[in-house]
Design a protein that fits this description.
about 270 residues; 10 helices; seven-stranded mixed β-sheet; alpha+beta; globular
């Protein structure tokens, strides 16, 4: 798609989502008037009939200069800040082509965040405009909502790949954000892998998987050291439970989250 596109600006759209025309127009206007390589908008997340508005901030902002770019780069790894995903943004096509930023097709987890990270790391000016530009439909057939036996292995490969790119940028703030990113994926592993009702595991098998994840050196370090400043209250509580290594409490947290998401058995 990147190679085939002809216009000045690129954006990305999943098949079951929709662009919000007025918002996309506003991003283009902002990008052209200020001179950005990337412009971020707001996306709406729909799940079980409820909408959540995901915005980095409530006012327009320009990120330019080494420190500001590092701030935005850290935000791409702090998942709850609404920047991690490839969509709800527009990208200057010439910049993307010339910078050789592409999706890593070897990954099936976190590939969009890695694309955003690489694009941001090479940009000179990034804009944010708090307009609704994208509507994301989360449903029970989504990748994160179903059980896959190899999910844990794919997550680990993705996080290792991201670590290589984070280390290459060499910024302490970005390193701390990466630890939050890892913890976010540990929480996903608990919800969609260890305590997924569709995995058919016995209690013993679940406990074994729970322990195996918490004993992984990358995960253990991130759980112990990650700052939780970008996490909401629910995630902060979950991280404290992981630090306690409480299987029972984490099982309860995941059961509550299952009901919130409206997950069903497959």
């Amino acid at each position: 798609g990147i190679e085939a596109a002809q216009g000045r600006w690129l954006t990305f759209l999943d098949a079951d989502d929709r662009l919000i025309g007025e918002g996309i127009n506003a991003l283009v206007y902002f990008g052209e008037s200020v001179g950005c390589q990337i412009v971020q908008g707001v996306y709406l997340k729909e799940s079980s009939g409820l909408y959540e508005r995901c915005a980095l901030t409530d006012s327009t902002h320009l990120y330019a200069g080494e420190r500001k770019i590092a701030d935005f780069l850290a935000a791409t790894l702090e998942v709850d800040r609404g920047v991690a995903l490839a969509w709800s943004k527009i990208y200057d096509r010439e910049f993307i082509i010339d910078s050789e930023v592409r999706f890593d097709t070897a990954l099936s987890v976190d590939e969009d965040t890695l694309f955003v990270f690489d694009a941001v790391a090479k940009a000179e000016a990034i804009g944010f405009n708090p307009v609704d530009a994208y509507a994301y439909q989360r449903h029970e057939e989504s990748q994160v909502m179903t059980f896959r036996e190899d999910y844990a292995a794919r997550v680990r490969v993705a996080l290792d790949t991201m670590k290589e790119h984070v280390d290459a940028f060499d910024d302490q703030q970005v390193q701390h954000a990466y630890l939050q990113h890892v913890v976010f994926y540990v929480l996903l592993l608990m919800l969609h892998y260890v305590f997924n009702a569709a995995n058919g595991w016995s209690a013993k098998e679940r406990r074994r998987a729970f322990k195996r994840i918490l004993d992984d050196p990358l995960y253990a370090h991130a759980i112990r050291k990650a700052r939780m400043n970008s996490f909401g209250l629910g995630k902060r509580l979950s991280v404290l439970i992981l630090r306690m290594r409480s299987y029972t409490l984490m099982k309860c947290i995941c059961a509550v989250r299952d009901r919130q998401l409206g997950k069903t058995k497959h």
